[in-house]
Amino acid sequence: MTTIQLDTDADGIATLTIDVPGQSMNVIGPDFIADLSAAIDRIKSEDAIKGAVICSGKASGFMGGMDLKNMQSMLPEGSEGNMTALFEKTFVLNDLFRRLETCGKPIACAIEGTCVGGGFELALACHRRIVADDSKVQLGLPEILVGLFPGGGGSQRFPRITGVQTALMYILQGKLFRPQEALGLKVVDELVPSGNTVAAAKTWLKANPAASVQPWDQKGYRFPGGAGGFNPAFVQTFIGATAMTMKQTQRNLNGPLALLSAVYEGATLPMDRAIRVESKYFAKVIADPQARNMVRTLFVSKQAAERGARRPKDLPKAPTKKLAMLGAGMMGAGVATVSAQAGIDVVLLDRDQAYAEKGKEHARGVLSKRLGKGMTPEKLEATLARITPTTDFAMLEGCDFVIEAVFEDTAIKAEVTKKVEAVLGADTIFGSNTSTLPITGLAHAWSKPENFIGVHFFSPVEKMPLVEIIVGEKTGPEAIAKALDYVAQIKKTPIVVNDSRGFYTSRCFGTYVQEGAELLAEGVGAPLIENVGKQLGMPVGPLAVSDEVSIELGYKVMTAAKKELGDAYVHSAADDVMTKMVEMDRMGRKNAKGYYDYPEGGKKALWPGLAETFPLAAEQPSPAAVRERLLYRQLIECARCFAEGVLETPEDGDIGAIFGWGFAPWTGGPFSHMDTVGLAKVVETLDALTAKHGPRFAPTAQMREMAASGATFYPKVEAKKAA
Hints:
This protein is an alpha/beta fold. It has 29 helices and 20 strands. The strands form four sheets. It has an eight-stranded mixed sheet with strand order 13-12-11-14-15-16-17-18, sandwiched between helices. A six-stranded mixed sheet has the order 1-2-3-5-7-10, with helices on both faces. A four-stranded mixed sheet has the order 4-6-8-9. Helix 9 (232-249) runs antiparallel to helix 10 (254-266) and helix 20 (526-536) packs across helix 25 (623-643).
């Protein structure tokens, strides 16, 4: 066996130590499945083995679940159209864990560190779960977050322990839990100090040699809270869960619906039948391209980005020790907060000491909300002590990285940049947090433009996971490496793009907002625009998000672009809408009036004056037509960024879209979606939209070439032939 070491002690206790070679975390792949199968056969057949404890040989934790990086290639060739072959492949894991729990001998699980997904399903199939009492330990079933649902018995065993309502609450949200919470849920049986889990497991095994039958396999077992269509509580749970799931997913996601069906049907069946039901629904989920797209972007590509996929090779690590944060507004204060949390000293500079102090107080407010959630008063004060508010540029001495987040004006940024260089010298890497201004132009204020780079955060910094790294015309590899190393320190997800007005995320996000305004200008009802935006899978409608980021900001960006581009600027109806709103002093949420009204202490609602300001057309488009415009206006801009070289990889495009502006996660991102629909169909749709609504929808020459040749943005993955 290559992934499991099996040793039997003098008491007849077999220890199965999982250590998958070449992986930082144990994962379930073909080799592990074969090895665990062989180990189960030995445990069952060898009289000398009285019981077994399963543990990990890795310091990173117990197990992280299926090897999702190779999920698609593991499926039999042609299985997407052959549900029987797909079911047989997906049932292998369920059958394996079922064999483990019915092998006739007690099995205990000793968990240290991370135990999630398929790893936690393995634990649920054991007769005893012993966990290290350490707040760093994480357990749970997060598969729903990447387009899947538990397919190794988790949807059947979890409810049989906690009851349906509790199980659904955790699994539908992909919610992880710590040891104490797990003990309260009874999904683990015992907590012991770190390092003692194996010894405790052996002690239990020796004391309970006959404990080899799961509760659900024992005569008289009752499902917690009851199960079945004649149980009012069971029915009410599913009525509520289904309604909430429909609202949250807008019917776009396959995983949650399949989970609800698997739990509902499986709860009334014996375990052997229940896990077959689960595998049936799991096969249906992974047969759809949605699962592949979501797994690739939300898990595989995201992890690769965080591990330095775009970092220049052969350059030594360059962690930031002392950060110069220029500007103490919401953005600068947020960057200072996450940097201090990462152990980085921060000099927070602003033109006014009161503003600088206010920036530090922002950090206190954010961190105070985490007291009792891993944050202690001592840790809070230690973190705040790393932030030094000041107005004195001389205080920047010793900083090894700079991030600028001052007012979005080229002249102001240039003035600040030169003052910083006078203190730190041009060899220091300088990062600008601008959201729209081209980095190449801003770099003129730094003597060594190869050391100038864009570091674009999203608000609120503490919550938003993405950082967009923008490479100017002269930006060098050392600057890219420094920026990516810093992003890794603060535990964010980076993408790397090339310079352009608005870069990638701001430019493409703007199209969603602009198309919403275009529709409004044409007389389309605001409720239709907003509801369809949410049905598409966006977090909120385009008018609501415009209010959130500020209509005034969009107006200023438009004005600056007009000034810089001159005759090359293309005017749109959306410009007129923004101008009219600003003239009416309706700036958005910032002044409590925009497309929506924001009454103090009340709930926001669409401004009644919209229909008067932008009169409704006599004939309204269908929701499908509005959805198509909102979706394809984003798709074509993403494709233009790819064609122009702003984006170098579809992975960056998909990650940036979902984590940057909330592009519909069910698609896996714009490039995954275009591949799934097919470039020929995408171009056909864009041509029709261009004919009806203008050149903003016109396909690129690259898209036409790809459509003609049958090319895709991502390489096609060949599935393995079935054995």
